[in-house]
Amino acid sequence: MIKNKAWDWKNEKNPRWLIPSEDAYYFLHRWKDLEYKRILDLGCGRGRHSLLFGQNGFNVMAVDLSEYVVKELKDRLRDLNLNIECKVSDMTKIDVEDNYFDCLFAYHVISHSTSEGVRKVISEIKRIVRTNGEIFVTFGSLETLSMVQPDKIEYIEQNVILKKFGVEAGIPHFYVDEEIIRKLMKDFKIISVRKAQNIDLLGTKKYGYHYFIHAEVIG
In this model, does residue 216 exceed pLDDT 90? Predict the structure, then answer.
C-alpha cells in the first residue's frame, strides 16, 4: 500500500499559500453565524486558513503531515495570542475524541491519497465532526487527467496517479466525478457541490477542474 506523503514545503515558494481562499471567507461568516467554535484545518500547510479562523475567534486545530510546515506555522504563531493548536498528523487518523469539532475545512487536501486512503479520511471526518456540524472539502475532477502530461505521472489506480516531479513528487492524487462523490459522501447530507476551473486568458497554461463540496454530518 502506498503511504500518504507530505508536500515538500521547504521548496514551495509560491506566496499564494499564505493568502486565504475565497471560500474560507464565506465559511468564516457562515460558521460564526451558526456559533461554531471548534474547527479542524485539515492539511493546514502554511496556516493561511488557520490564521483566518483563529483571528476571528475560532478554536483551531491545524493539522498537516509535514513536520517542516507545522514547525514553520508554530514559529509564526509564537508572538500571536491565538487559540491555534498545531499538530503533525496523517489525515486518516486524528488524535481527538469522537464528535470533537463543530466544523472542518480541508482545501485541496484529502484527495492526496489512494482510494483506500480517501475512504479512511472520509470515515475519520465523520467520526470527529459532531452530528449537524459542517464540512468543506475539495477534490480534483477526473477531467483534469486528460490535461496531465503522461511522462510526468504514473497511474496506480484508474483514478489515482503519482506525480513524478516538483513539491508533490511521490504524492498520490485521487480524482472524482459526480458518481464517485455520491458514493464517498453517502453518509453526509450534501448542501452544495460546485465544479470550477481556473482559466488562463492568455492561453499559456491549462488548469484542472475541482469540485467544492459543502456538507452536513448526519447521525
Answer: yes
The three grid cell numbers given for residue 95, joined into one nine-digit string: 488524535
**Domain boundaries defined on the chain:** 18-217
Distance from C-alpha of 54 to C-alpha of 23, rounded to nearest angstrom: 16
Position 1 scores a pLDDT of 60
What's the CA gap between 166 and 200, in Å, rounded? 21
Question: 145-149 long-range CB contacts below 8 Å, 24 or more apart?
Answer: 145/175, 147/206, 147/207, 147/208, 148/208
Residue 15 CB partners (closer than 8 Å, separation 6+): none
Indicate if the alpha-carbon torsion angle 121, 124, 126, 128 is positive or negative. Answer: negative
Does the pLDDT value for residue 83 go beyond 80?
yes
Provide the whole-model pTM: 0.93
Interior angle at CA 115, CA 113 and CA 117, nearest 5: 50
- At 59, list the grid cell: 478554536
CATH says 18-217 is which class? Answer: alpha beta
